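Worked example 3. Consider a protein that binds flavin mononucleotide.
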Amino acid sequence: MKKIYVLLLAAVMCSCVSAQTSIKLPAPAKDADMTLFKALQQRASVREFKTDEVPMQALSDLLWAAVGINREDGRLTAPTAMNTQEIRLFVCLGNGTYEYVAKDNVLNLASSKDLRQDVAAGQGNIGDAPVFLLIVADLDRYQRKGPRTATFGAIDCGYVSQNICLACEALGLSTVPRAMMDQETLKKELSLGEGQELLINHPVGYRK
Ligand SMILES: Cc1cc2nc3c(=O)[nH]c(=O)nc-3n(C[C@H](O)[C@H](O)[C@H](O)COP(=O)(O)O)c2cc1C
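Given these inputs, the predicted complex is written out as structure tokens:
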């Protein structure tokens, strides 16, 4: 009997660990009532957020809109130079920081730390936002680097950032693209090297 309890406990502990290391997202709805032109009309930077959680369904929809797969050949909602797909998206939540893996629709644990205040970097009340997205251009994914590689990375980051801005409007969420953040801490915690440019972050939540 004791052995069964031990085995059951081990099984429960294993499932807890895997739940933390990888979060399966609900399938993205890929739909919203708001038209693109209404979203364009409403898009505006918001810097005051309620602390209310963002539902996982809305997060899944937002991540798919940002840089999800929209074609059978694996191409993305955002264009990338030579289809390099070098943009990596990290999701900072209260229980850790995750990387969005579009092909599996999962969040993989990148750091078990809550890095949201490191992203907020003391700017006003932005740290109230329940979610922060980090956009990284992984320039090491380019087969050959040239004088314009970093520019391509920055341009591709911009498409993803704008997708996030518009999708937030469509989903009733708010955001602001931000260059301000504690680069040093974030790069260290997420094991980002010289080839990975941490370019922009987006607090995401409900407008206060
Ligand atoms: C590349 C870039 C960096 C930005 N960095 C910050 C920032 O660190 N903090 C901030 O509050 N807003 C930041 N913003 C938002 C701009 O201040 C904002 O877009 C601008 O004031 C225009 O306002 P709007 O977005 O409401 O049209 C940034 C925007 C861009 C495009």
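Take a moment to read the result before moving on. The CA atoms of residues 26 and 79 lie 24 Å apart. The helical segments are 2-21, 36-42, 56-67, 116-120, 149-170, 183-189.
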